[in-house]
Structure formats: structure tokens, C-alpha cells
Amino acid sequence: MAHIGDLIAEMLAQYGVEYVFGMPGGQTTALHDGISRRTDRIRHILMRDERNAAYAADAYARLTGKPGICDVTVGPGANLLPAGFLEALNASIPMIGIIGELPLDWLPLKEKGIASQGFDQLSFFKTCSKEAFLVPSVAALPELIRTAFRIATAPRPGPVALIIPHDIFDAEWDEELLKIKVDDRAIAMPYLRSLAPAAEIAAAADLIRKAKRPALVCGGGVHGSVATEAATAFADRLGGLVVTSLSGKGSVPETRDFAAGVLNPLGSAAAIELIQEADLIIWCGSKVSQNTGMNWTLPKPDQATITIDFDPLEHGRTFRPTVALLGDVRDTVLALDAAMGGSRKGANPEWDARIAEVKARCDAAKQEEMTSNQVPILPPRIMVEIAKRLGDDDVVVSDASFSAGWISGYIPARQAKRQFLFARGQGGLGYAVPGAIGAATVIAKGARVVTVAGDGAFSYTIGELATQAQYNQRIVNVVINNGKLGWIQLWQEIYFKNVQSAELETQSSVPGYAAAAQGLGLLGIYVDKPDDIADALDRAFAHDGPSVIEVRIDDRATPIHGFKRRMREAEDKPRPRPGTVYKLRDWKVSPDL
């Protein structure tokens, strides 16, 4: 019998969705039954944990531009989605969650689980999604699916919760419901493009012509607008500095002479130093978050600013821009490039020389870490070996915390494309392993996904290694193991008198992540000597399936420049007493986050 699960699966397939990530429940079984009859167009990826379904869908969406689709059942399945939903909401990633619900007639019994697994799901998802809908009838469902795709992909993209009662899921399917066709504009973001007014573009071009030390900051909005080609062409003619946020890494190739890497407290020292000297900063598809804005010390009062964003609320959130360009990033950058009046490359030789000098000095300072034979191993040595093996179609998925710094600072983006995925919407641990599952479904044939996670982050989602093995995905998981929650440990050491609840192992209990991977059906390799890194990576990249390389690293290693400085100064300065209350101004001047 055809049922509403068939209708949903058919509409998803018509929207070009190849994969749905999730876990079945009795209330949502009709969806999986519908997918099973369309496996030539759409497949279901069974995750081990509903939390991870959203992360996998998120990575799929970042690489394809299409809404990532995840499905969960009512109650305990639904209440695990918010971490992934908030990541997508804050990072502007299109996603649709198909969520089971009690039958409509049972909804008055949802309180306190009187009807098994019931709770107020609609109110719950209103807090963590761009929009949430409870489907009231079979007749309303097709239009709500179309609405969900439109909202998910339209500026500003984000996750949409579609909550479907059990009785509607199991109802018979009337093919008349498909008479209204899918909206092809909503297949992938951006749903529509717009252009900033000509007068504002002219004013921005005039600012650029007058600038002696211009800088371009590219955020995740460049990737969201599919604007890397336009951004790179603009950067080539700008005649200035180019840096990116973590999410914007790859907007412009970091091999360019004017590119100084990631602007972030755990990013590029050259980017942090040089951005202070710019007289004009162009914020392109960047929300100027706490980290990209260096704890909101940027822009400085004497720096002129241009903001390029399709969200009107971003133009003035933390500072008032000199010129605000409200429009689609790609089309606005193209128009600004044309209005600039030709290339300004070489127009500011002193600025060019300064960029080259700072980059050379900062690169030289990193060489000792990158070539170190120290035991325990320094993470930059690992990143250098990963970088040597990355192909043009490979994808790197970072977990949160220090991993993002090691990747951003030591694995260069050689191409203008989204090749690096960072969990920066929430910055929560546990993204890399499930994110890799989503990425692996859409990478080019023969390509690899490489994840980098600390042992703390890796522990969150280690069960999903079984999913990687089940689908025999080409994933190399690198676990940089220091036996601790590294960020927490150093924070406690610098600002408090002791370390508490940061240890992940003891002398009598040492988790073995490579061994655990072998037990779950993956290739597992343990490395504790620098000379063994290359061979381990070669074996993993050659392996026909997923692998885990566990590398024992120095527990004092950190990519955060402020931490490094504070560690050097720790013996000379008293620590703030525990319980110190910090005001906003304190955080603005702190380089530590």
C-alpha cells in the first residue's frame, strides 16, 4: 500500500536529495519504507545516534549546497537533534529535520509522557531552528515540505523542523497531492540572489581606491553564496591583504602572496598582526563573530569598513560600517570588482612588502614545530604530513577546540573551494566523525575524507565508526591524543591553581582509540614516534575503507597564541583568583578565546 512515507520520499527525491541521515522509529517507519522503493534516487544512512544524524546532514549540506535531511522519531529521538540544529542555525547551513510525532488525537496526552515518549516538540524546536512546523493534515503536507525547502535555502539559510504525526505518516497516499511541482529555486542555496544598490557599490569602490592598506576578510557566506571564484578574482585585483574566518577557509587560495591565513585567536599569527594595520577592512560574508573579530577589538575606530552580506541584521550588529552592501555575496562582489575600475595589484608596494615580511617571519617561527622530532609528538608535524597527501577532491573535517587551530594554521587551502569543514556554529565537540559520514556520501570518486579530532572530541561519537565501517567509507580519522581536555587543562592552569576534571585517563586506565577502531571493523594504527607518522598515513590512505590513526601528542601543545604567551608569562604574573567576574570590556581585550 502506498502511504505518506512514499509521498515524502518522492518529494525529497524530486528536490535532488540523495541521502537521508537518521535512525528509524515506529512512528517514522513509513518514511524508510518509501525510501526503500526509490533507492535508485535516494538512500537512507543509518546512524548510531540521532545527535550525529544532524551533523552528517550538516556536512552534506556544506559540500552540496542542498538542504541536509535528517530523520528521527518522536521523543528521545527528537530531543537529541538540537546540538546539530544549533550548529546549522548559527552557521547558516540549510537543513530539514523530519521528526516523528504522536498521532494527532493523542497530542493532549503528550505532557509528562502520559502518551509514551510525548512532549511539546513544536515549542522545543522553535528555539533551535529557523522555523518549525507541526503538520496538521495530509492535505497540508506537500505545501509544508515545499515551504521547508524554501525557508531552509533562502537568506539566511538554516534548519527547519517538520514534525509529522504518526497517523499522517501512515495515511494512504493520494497522487493528486503531487500536482504542484517542487520549487527548483529551493533545491540548493541560495534560493534567490540580490544586488546592493549601485550608489552604495560606487561608494565602496571609492573607499577601496583611496585605501593604502586594504584588507579583505572572507567568511562562510562566501561558500554559502558559491562565490569563491568571484572572491578570488576580486582579491587578485584588490592589491591588499586577504584573510578568512575558519568557516571561510578556502574562499581564496592560501597560496597567494597576499593571503595570510585564518583570522582567529587559534589561527594565523600573521593574519592577527596584519589586520591591525589595515586602513580599510572589507568584511565579505562574515558576521564578525567573537573569534573572527578578535573578541570584538576589530574593526578599530580608525579603520574604514565595508560589509557585504545578504542579511540586513548583520550590517551593524557589532559596529556601524562605513558602507553597507546589502545583497548576495557573489553578485555584490562581482559588481564591486567591476566598479573598482581595474586592478589595484601593486598599487601599494609598501603594504605588499609589509605583508610579505610578516608572513615570512611568522612562517619561519612555525618551522621548528612543523619539523620537530619531539616525543610526545607536536601536532604541526602531523598536519604537515596530512597536507602532503591531500588531493584536490579530498575533504578535511575538523572537530572543535584545538583541532581547528592545528588544521587552519598548518594545512593550507590550495584551492578556491569548500574543502575544509569546521563546526563553528556552536563549536561543540563531536562533529568530525559523523560529519565525515555526510561528507563521504558526496565526495568525488576516489577521494578521501580526513578528520582531525582530539581524544575528548573523538570520544563523543566513537560509536559512529561502526557506521563508517558499515558503509565502507573512505575516511581517515586522525585522533590527536593528549589524554586530556587540552583547552580546559590549559585554561585552568593559567587562570586557576589546579586542574580538575580535565584528565581523560589514569596510569591504570588508558583508552586505546586505534584498538577500539579495530574492534569496530576499521583499520587502527597507533603512533607515538614522529618518524612513524608518514607510514601510518600512507597505510590509511591506501586502505580500502575507513581507518583511525591515533597519535600520542604533547599535552602542552596549543595553537592558541594567547595561551602560548600566557604560559611563557605564567611564572612572572599572579593568576586571577577563582570566581573572578569578568566584564565585557575584559573579554574584548583578552586574546585567549
From TrEMBL:
<dbReference type="Pfam" id="PF02775">
    <property type="entry name" value="TPP_enzyme_C"/>
</dbReference>
<dbReference type="Pfam" id="PF02776">
    <property type="entry name" value="TPP_enzyme_N"/>
</dbReference>
<dbReference type="InterPro" id="IPR011766">
    <property type="entry name" value="TPP_enzyme_TPP-bd"/>
</dbReference>
<dbReference type="InterPro" id="IPR012001">
    <property type="entry name" value="Thiamin_PyroP_enz_TPP-bd_dom"/>
</dbReference>
<keyword id="KW-0786">Thiamine pyrophosphate</keyword>
<feature type="compositionally biased region" description="Basic and acidic residues">
    <location>
        <begin position="583"/>
        <end position="593"/>
    </location>
</feature>
<dbReference type="GO" id="GO:0005948">
    <property type="term" value="C:acetolactate synthase complex"/>
</dbReference>
<feature type="region of interest" description="Disordered">
    <location>
        <begin position="566"/>
        <end position="593"/>
    </location>
</feature>
<dbReference type="GO" id="GO:0000287">
    <property type="term" value="F:magnesium ion binding"/>
</dbReference>
<feature type="domain" description="Thiamine pyrophosphate enzyme TPP-binding">
    <location>
        <begin position="403"/>
        <end position="551"/>
    </location>
</feature>
<dbReference type="InterPro" id="IPR045229">
    <property type="entry name" value="TPP_enz"/>
</dbReference>
<dbReference type="InterPro" id="IPR012000">
    <property type="entry name" value="Thiamin_PyroP_enz_cen_dom"/>
</dbReference>
<dbReference type="GO" id="GO:0030976">
    <property type="term" value="F:thiamine pyrophosphate binding"/>
</dbReference>
<feature type="domain" description="Thiamine pyrophosphate enzyme central">
    <location>
        <begin position="201"/>
        <end position="336"/>
    </location>
</feature>
<dbReference type="Pfam" id="PF00205">
    <property type="entry name" value="TPP_enzyme_M"/>
</dbReference>
<feature type="domain" description="Thiamine pyrophosphate enzyme N-terminal TPP-binding">
    <location>
        <begin position="4"/>
        <end position="121"/>
    </location>
</feature>
<dbReference type="GO" id="GO:0050660">
    <property type="term" value="F:flavin adenine dinucleotide binding"/>
</dbReference>
<dbReference type="GO" id="GO:0009099">
    <property type="term" value="P:L-valine biosynthetic process"/>
</dbReference>
<dbReference type="InterPro" id="IPR029061">
    <property type="entry name" value="THDP-binding"/>
</dbReference>
<dbReference type="InterPro" id="IPR029035">
    <property type="entry name" value="DHS-like_NAD/FAD-binding_dom"/>
</dbReference>
<dbReference type="GO" id="GO:0009097">
    <property type="term" value="P:isoleucine biosynthetic process"/>
</dbReference>
<comment type="similarity">
    <text>Belongs to the TPP enzyme family.</text>
</comment>
<dbReference type="GO" id="GO:0003984">
    <property type="term" value="F:acetolactate synthase activity"/>
</dbReference>
<protein>
    <submittedName>
        <fullName>IlvB</fullName>
    </submittedName>
</protein>
